[in-house]
Amino acid sequence: MEKRVTFGRWTIGILFAVPQLILIFTFFYWPAGQAVYWSLTLQQPWGGGNIWVGLDNFRSILANADYWNSITASMIFAGISTGLAMVIALVLAALTDRQLAGSWLYRVVLIWPYGIAAPALALAFRFILAPEAGFMAVVNKVWPGFWDPGLDGADAMASIIIAFSWKYVGYNFIFFLAAFQAIPRSLIEAAAMDGSGVIRRFWDIQFPLITPTIFFLLVINITESFQDSFGIVDIMTAGGPANATNLMVYKIYSDGFKGLDYSGAAAQSIILMFLIIALTIVQFRFIERRVHYR
Amino acid sequence: MVERTPILNFFTHLILFAGFVFCVAPFVIVAIAASHNLKDVNDVPMSLLPGSDFWVNIKTAWTTADLGPKLFNSFIMAFGVAAGKVIVSALTAFSIVYFRYPGRMLIFWLIFVTLMLPLEVRIVPTYAVVANVLDPYQAIMDLTGLSWLIQKISGVQVQLSLGLLNSYSGLILPLVATATGTFLYRQFFLTVPDELTEAARMDGAGALRFFVDILLPLSRNNMAALGTIMFLWAWNQYLWPLLITTDQSHAMAVTELKQLIPNVGGAPEWHIAMAGTLIVMVPPMIVVVLMQRWFVRGLIATEK
């Protein structure tokens, strides 16, 4: 879409864009280019610049079992937490859209978790899920040793998944509800006249019509699970136990800033960048074609 | 409601109520835990009746993590990012929508691409840039031979250096450098009727006057939505402030939470930790509750 009426003095026009351009050049394009450069070079230990090593950094990362472990952990985390957050939100939004008495309350309250900083909710869940105090302690009292995120990798993974899903249920809920409410009431009423029940209407009318939202949220949730998980992991598990929750962004941080391996961290960043770009392209290219639009 | 379905309605209420509990329970538990003393908070099961030490714990958490100045820093940063976004994005969107100049589409795509790569994945090199923001320009001058030229002529060796670690600008600027708001404004500007622009031009208004007196007042809703969402987003940032503020005087409230995690071997002071969590949760919660309409609108509009 283009404007028919525009202003003639385009030099002024460019001036308006200059602040943004300086910002994205300095803090986006330069660092992104720098990451590519670092990933292809190796910093010499006692200064003296970078030596060109080609794809060696990538090779050594991809040969590293820790890195594959981190990818697997990220995929498990992304898969389960996205699934949980989306299914719960979808059910809650579909039911809220039935507009029974009191549904305004859910519309207001269910979004609250999304306003909370990931580290704050992580600390809250660390307490709630702590093995010796809080609520899982009750379970531990009945079955001793059942739950210990500090020792058992699966428990630690479950903890960060619960914390992340809790935050993103609210976010997904808002989008699903908006999508449901965009469906014309007359469509639902006509189907009801024809004798279809609530469940039938959901699968045959509402669900196909909100597929664009589902795919949109799928991509957003997966991307966010790569980024927003950092605070949760850092507060709840610090990547442990035994690297069970060492997700990709957390590994970049610990390799780059704790291990001071800039080249390795940069190479990992590049791989993550490609992953996220690939996801975005999938969203734009393939998924948009297969979904229903009115 | 389309038809009468009493059984289904019952289950609808039941499930929605379960969802409600699921959302609210953590807030309630945090608040209750923050009101217990050391012994009660570690009771298994913890009593769900509030204890009496609420203000004592809040005070302890406040002083232990030194939250006063940290909250102040968080406010400065969140306001800075929100204001920066609201202003810079409006300017850029105006330029893209209301002018025709060579390279306009290039600028559009340059900005669009920034949506794809969040700060978290390019954190290491961004950190290096902020350590010396003029580094890109130094490199360009070196590469183009400009610094060599200047040295030949004036004898001065060019060493551009401006470190932004441990400063508000270092915290704020990289977070402003994304495209989220630009597209929000762009969508809105495209819906502003052309007749309005024509009328303004007929009355002799230039680009700047049209922007300030007509377009900005019309975008008030967008500004509120964008401001709210960016304020929350900036307040909740963790990784970036963690890296860039090595100096305590610039630390953020959210990053200070880490200091409240009970140590292994130390006293399990969960009541203090939860009081601190509550303090850090409250400001964004107030924003969400008061600005709910803008928040929801901003959420949906910035992503789509």
List the helices and strands and how they pair.
The complex is a heterodimer of chains A (294) and B (304).
Chain A: H1 10-39, E1 41-43, E2 50-52, H2 56-62, H3 65-96, H4 103-109, H5 118-128, H6 136-142, H7 153-182, H8 185-193, H9 198-209, H10 211-227, H11 229-236, H12 248-258, H13 262-290
Antiparallel strand pairs in A: 1-2
Helix pairs in contact in A: 1-13, 2-13, 3-7, 3-10, 5-7, 5-11, 7-10, 7-11, 8-9, 10-13, 12-13
Chain B: H1 6-33, H2 38-41, H3 54-64, H4 67-98, H5 104-113, H6 123-131, H7 135-144, H8 146-154, H9 168-176, H10 180-191, H11 194-202, H12 207-218, H13 220-235, H14 239-244, H15 253-256, H16 270-290, H17 292-303
Helix pairs in contact in B: 1-16, 3-16, 4-9, 4-10, 4-13, 13-17
CATH superfamily of chain A: MetI-like
In total, the number of strands of chain A is 2
- Percent range of helical residues of chain B: over 70%
Here the CATH topology of chain B equals MetI-like fold
> Could you describe the largest sheet of chain B, including whether it forms a barrel?
none
Assembly type of the chains comes to heterodimer
The coarse overall form of chain A would be globular
Shape of chain B: flat
The class by helix and strand makeup of chain B works out as mainly alpha
- Helical percentage of chain A: over 70%
Low-confidence stretches of chain B: none
Whole-angstrom Rg of chain A:
24 Å
Order of helices and strands of chain B: HHHHHHHHHHHHHHHHH
> How many runs of DSSP E, i.e. beta strands of chain B?
0
